[in-house]
Amino acid sequence: MGFATYNEGFLHFEIDTGRVDQVADLELSIRGQKTEGVDGFIKHRKVKIGSIYYDQSGMSVPISEHILSYLVMLEEGGNYDPFLFESTHRRLSSVSAISSVQLAKDYPRELNMKYDEADVTVTLKSSSRFNLAFELDMTRADTRFGPLSKFTLKNRNLRGKGDVLTLTSTASIASTQLFSESDISLIPNTGEIGVQCSYRSIGMPLFNLSNLPKSTYPHYELIFNAAKEIRPEYSRSFANFLFRVDWTENPERNSKIILDPLTLSYVNINAEQSFSDWLTESGDPLLQYRFSDYALAGSRVTWTQKAKHSFTTSAEWSGLASSLILPLIGASTSETVAVLIGDVPLIKYLRLDGSWSMGGVLDESKSWATRVRAGSAWIGKGTDALPYDRAFFSGGANGVRGWPVRGVGGDPTLIGVGDLRLDASIEFRNKVNDYLIMALFSDLGNVWIHESENKFRDVAMSAGVGFRFDFEFFLLRFDAAARLYDPTQNQGERWLVQGPFRGGVHFGLGHPF
Question: Which of 257, 357, 475, 504 is deepest in the core (most CB within 10 A)?
Fold first, then answer.
């Protein structure tokens, strides 16, 4: 480290194979550098970084130098280190306002008897400041599948801080499993339109950027979105506001912390008459509560690691600070009665969720992957039940694949929706050719409500085969699974050999994990 004039081209190997005992001698030497006007070679000398200059003549809107000095890992007076040049190039290139990065080193000049010195010029070229894009994609939610269209307008350098303002509109149609019926629908029956506005910038509010470690690379983001979803059973409108801060926790493990200190949401549900009748006929007030209007004011924290072992853990909560905040806006509070904002209850809950996955290569064409997920949610005083969209689901293309989504577990009056989840999956994948991958897989798990008895006796198990078609820019997946153990059946009919054959067929995009 520190030798700017050295590279692998200066290595010289000589091998002597003249020995009779089948042993070769290896001599490794490092050749000095050849400079104009000097006879012979001169030794490589360590180089320190001199001045750092920024050339933004190619930028339509220059980026603030305090932002650039934070992104650049080089330090004036520091030793030359190729890794710092690479990381500087990578960090600058990650800013969407920048299309091209060049790091030019001046020819080293003698600093003292031990070190030379080289100045560095950082030359930046601008991306187009405004970007308008149209995308066609597929909705990948566990509970739905269908085409998604998206219009996006971006200002990639709004205030000269590498900050991005994004306006997005979306429209989608999807096949959605109904709550009141067990029949599987493959025909699109749900539509959604939505808008989102977000602002993302480098830094962390209340902290001076220059005082933050460069390795954390923090960002903050303000997000507002709203949408309307129309299903056969009900229509659902919602609006969310989110303040987010994220930073790198450990660059070597590629781990990151995402903190949402403030999340505000409002959800309005208008049920069709037939669905209202189904809720009433169930005679279960908790089921009706799951499909009622609600608001939340809470927070969320997520920790992720993407390495050989991938982890994701998150905790979210709402209503814990209502007794302190809501009196300021004139709302009444009580420990045992729901807090109302107008006629809408503010829900109180704590939700913990986590997943772990890893994989490996068996040979040139074979690999394996596994995943474990666990989560639990608890409601606070004054909240009767967790809304269905905050609960856990079972089955489907990304769960226990022997069942349709929401096809197993949960409460008897609402199959497949629970407050507690545990599942595990393993796959063995064989690449048949450049376009086809076959997989053998097995899944087990379920979702429960906390009051469920004999939870571990109700663990569903399935196994099956999958076909994945790799089209380079996307992977199309077909999975078929048989139910090895079906806890929805009566005793004596649950195992595969005890009853009629049952299973599930799913298709999706990408591997399930």
Answer: 504
